[in-house]
């Protein structure tokens, strides 16, 4: 039977920091301090940056498709133009036509490879080969219609002009693709997200899907989710002070997101990512960490049944950084 009431990954993070702080948040005790306001602004900027990765990479993929199809069209048009070459230089024309067709077949092969076989880097290379192949076919076709013995010079030249126009279109899409890829790459480098496709981003402006694991009574929205193969990797970006290492409460939070990914997609991620300032930490998700999350959720429900929770530490410095210290009856500072 599923536990009654949902606990969020953010609640688990609060409980891991201090059970009493979590308890006060249940009573709608407001978070206070200028760092809270600044943190919300920074988190909003992070969301926009992460959404930008997704947007730029989508634009790049759309532009890459334009590169491929414009280049293929240019090759076909150029090859059709060669068909008007006969009579005096029939053998030369046929030879050039054959070479042009070979380039066309090469383009089709690389188009198939880019769509179905290639990795990201290979796809990038395949698209450039397609464009070069189209250019080569167009140049050969222009050479063919330039020799004496063209049956319909006007039609042949018209096809060549059209082929060149399509090549200009392909080059324009190539520039757009490369620019979008560079923007996405720089943002990935900023947040240390070299691998994986961004398939989910949390945003205060547009709340995305809420992940729910009903049998555990757990819910949450990670800052981002990366798709690596068929594995969904949750990412949590922390905008406050940078600790010497990942905090226990943050580890609990990212582990909660890993549990949500496991329940949502049927496959447990091997790790989750916590991002601080200029660095990130890959937190291994294993059975021990999974049990720890469920244990903390059990403790939270026990507190709810008793109707109380208490401070779990004797560190004044921890109270100083707590956003609910002004209303905490057990604060040390």
Short description:
The protein has 333 residues and is α/β, with parallel strands linked by helices.
Question: What does it look like?
Answer:
It contains 9 helices and 8 strands. By secondary structure, it is of the alpha/beta class. It has 2 domains: 7-32 and 196-327, Lambda Exonuclease, Chain A; 54-190. β6 (231-238), α7 and β7 form a beta-alpha-beta unit. α3 (34-82) packs antiparallel against α4 (90-117), α3 (34-82) packs parallel to α5 and α4 runs antiparallel to α5 (120-146). The longest helix is centred in the first third of the chain and has 49 residues, at 34-82. The protein is elongated and about 90 Å long. The model has no long low-confidence stretch (mean pLDDT 76).
Largest sheet: 5 strands, mixed
Estimated structural class: alpha/beta
Mean pLDDT: 76
Number of helices: 9
H/E element order: EHHHHHHEEEEEHEEHH
Alpha-carbon distance between the two ends: 42 Å
Number of structural units classed as domains: 2
Q: What is the approximate shape?
A: elongated
Radius of gyration: 29 Å
Helix content: 55-70%
For the biggest β-sheet, the strand order reads 2-5-6-7-8
If you consult CATH, what is the topology of the largest domain?
Lambda Exonuclease, Chain A
* Proportion of residues in extended strands: 5-15%
Number of strands: 8
CATH architecture of the largest domain: Alpha-Beta Complex
CATH C-level label of the largest domain: Alpha Beta
Uncertain segments of ≥5 residues (pLDDT<50)? none
């Amino acid at each position: 039977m599923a536990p009654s009431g949902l606990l969020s990954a953010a609640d688990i993070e609060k409980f891991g920091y201090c059970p009493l702080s979590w308890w006060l948040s249940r009573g709608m005790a407001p978070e206070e301090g200028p760092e809270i306001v600044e943190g919300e602004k920074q988190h909003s900027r992070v969301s926009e940056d992460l959404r930008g990765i997704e947007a730029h990479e989508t634009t790049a993929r759309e532009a890459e498709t334009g590169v491929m199809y414009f280049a293929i069209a240019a090759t076909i048009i150029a090859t059709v133009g060669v068909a008007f070459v006969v009579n005096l230089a029939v053998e030369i024309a046929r030879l050039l036509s054959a070479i042009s067709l070979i380039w066309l077949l090469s383009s089709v092969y690389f188009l198939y490879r880019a769509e179905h076989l290639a990795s990201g880097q290979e796809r990038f290379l395949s698209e450039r080969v397609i464009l070069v192949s189209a250019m080569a076919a167009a140049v050969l076709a222009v050479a063919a219609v330039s020799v004496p013995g063209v049956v319909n010079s006007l039609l042949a030249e018209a096809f060549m002009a059209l082929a060149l126009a399509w090549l200009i279109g392909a080059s324009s899409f190539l520039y757009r693709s490369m620019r979008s890829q560079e923007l996405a790459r720089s943002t990935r480098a900023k947040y240390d997200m070299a691998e994986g496709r961004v398939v989910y981003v949390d945003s205060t402006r547009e709340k995305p899907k809420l992940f729910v694991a009903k049998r555990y009574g757990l819910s949450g929205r990670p800052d981002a989710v990366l798709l690596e193969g068929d594995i969904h990797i949750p990412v949590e970006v922390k905008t406050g002070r940078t600790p010497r290492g990942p905090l226990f409460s943050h580890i609990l939070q990212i582990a909660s997101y890993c549990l949500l990914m496991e329940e949502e997609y049927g496959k447990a991620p091997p790790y989750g990512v916590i991002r601080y300032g200029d660095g990130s930490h890959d937190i291994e998700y294993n059975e021990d960490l999974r049990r720890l999350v469920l244990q903390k959720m059990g403790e939270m429900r026990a507190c709810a049944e008793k109707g109380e929770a208490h401070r779990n530490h004797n560190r004044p410095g921890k109270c100083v950084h707590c956003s609910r210290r002004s209303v905490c009856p057990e604060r040390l500072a």
